[in-house]
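Request: Give me one sample?
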Amino acid sequence: MKIGSGKDYKHLSEGDIPVFGTGGFMTSVNDYLMDGESVCIGRKGTINKPFYYSGKFWTVDTLFFTHSFKNIIPKFAFYAFEKINWLKYNEASGVPSLSKSTIEQIETRIPSISEQKIIANFLSHIDERIQCQSKIIEGLKSLKVASCKKIFSRELSFKDDNGEDFTEWEEKNGGDLFDSISNKNHNSDLPILAISQEFGAVPREMINYQISVTDKSIESYKVVEVGDFIISLRSFQGGIEYSNYKGICSPAYIILHAKVLIDNTFYKYYFKTDLYIQQLCSKLEGIRDGKMISYKYFSEITLPFPSLPEQNKIANFLSGIDEKITIETSLLRQLKLQKQYLLRQMFI
């Protein structure tokens, strides 16, 4: 197996042959460097994510490609490359880099052709299952986004347990439904919550969020109850966060607590919609990088207020999609762990 270097493609015309860089597909041209099965790996930058391709392609000069295979199946070579910790062979102190000679000098155990075929086919089946599982998850996420859009724009409606239409939605100002609370009645014995767009409000240790705080500063932290909402410095980008945990958080955050009977989960989804985020953006104040939405401005924004039974129906429907996403994501994680385990066992 030999290692080839990519070249500049700017002199080429547009075509149907893919050009690959360290980040994957870049564009399409009318000429190729390689025609056949190959394993590509970054020369500079992303050096730890090899990928397999079969067919005509071009690569830029930051990407190596394999060719002229002898006594080794290209797909097996790809899985052997996946097993290698390429960062261990980094040759630069700045941007990670590999050289052709380094790649060619790495030794790995190569079984017979027949065993290579078995290993490559088996791992290929797992990869296909991983790709299928990823598509299932993306499909569910798209369904959730589309469902939220239709539900909150009233394109999709629900019926009550008797099959009848629910009453028309009312509208209430945020201040009619939520109070801003600042409960500091704690002994600093509650978990400190990290507030993020990715995870919502969760204990810091759950996401390995490390920021040192003094005992004195914790005394000023606010108590967050299960079901509370938090306006953060990034709410204008990703909406208002929801807490499934009781804990404490920095006094910089605005804590919202329902003042009337609502389904908190219904508003958890609504506060993350593009429609609501656009309304938040119109209420920006401050000049800092993370602009804060004040309670006063939050309280002036109108919110949908369906009947409680309809809120429950909508919350249960969207929660069902989320539960399915969680299950499928867990299965995807298990498949990836299984693949990593097999790679370790097959390439000891």
Remarks:
- The chain has three domains: 2-109, 111-167+306-348, 170-305.
- The radius of gyration is 27 Å.
